[in-house]
Design brief:
By secondary structure, the chain is mainly α. It is built from five helices and no strands.
């Protein structure tokens, strides 16, 4: 397996994904703030949460990059299109499984069942994270597509 490539290119691809999501948020295309969502698991302070969440997202991105590297090694090939397909699958899993399950485990995220007494500071993502804006699924898929394409182009499958 390409361990050096995984270590470097996993960080690069995660950085690109994160920057894409932040740029889309700043452009008003989505309200999904991945570092804030992840960081508020640990702390209530939004500024600290973004910093901690950024680190947590880089760690998670490295974990997913390891999965991509393993897949490329197993298939004995890596390409931009194979990485792109994995990126779309990754984004689809994030939108349909990971984000919808968060309200059940996130201490500061409301759920659809939370009543008026809820002290949650984050709204639940909803179906395909649509509560964060109707363009959020497209933005998330594009960001994950870029992540996968970068890894497919940069990782050595041997």
């Amino acid at each position: 397996m390409d361990w050096a490539g995984w270590a470097l290119f996993g960080l690069l691809a995660t950085g690109a994904l994160t920057l894409t999501m932040i740029a889309a948020q700043m452009a008003g295309l989505t309200r999904l703030d991945i570092p804030l969502v992840l960081g508020t698991v640990v702390t209530e302070d939004p500024d600290r949460a973004r910093a901690v969440g950024g680190v947590l997202h880089l760690i998670a991105g490295q974990g997913f990059a390891l999965g991509y590297a393993g897949t490329f090694a197993l298939l004995q090939q890596a390409s931009w299109w194979l990485g792109g397909l994995l990126g779309l699958l990754h984004g689809a899993v994030a939108l349909t499984l990971i984000l919808p399950l968060l309200p059940g485990v996130h201490p500061r995220m409301a759920s659809h069942r939370a009543g008026p007494a809820s002290r949650a500071v984050l709204e639940p993502p909803g179906l395909l994270a649509l509560n964060y804006g109707f363009q959020t699924p497209v933005v998330a898929l594009v960001a994950h597509l870029a992540y996968g394409i970068l890894l497919g182009m940069l990782l050595d499958p041997r």
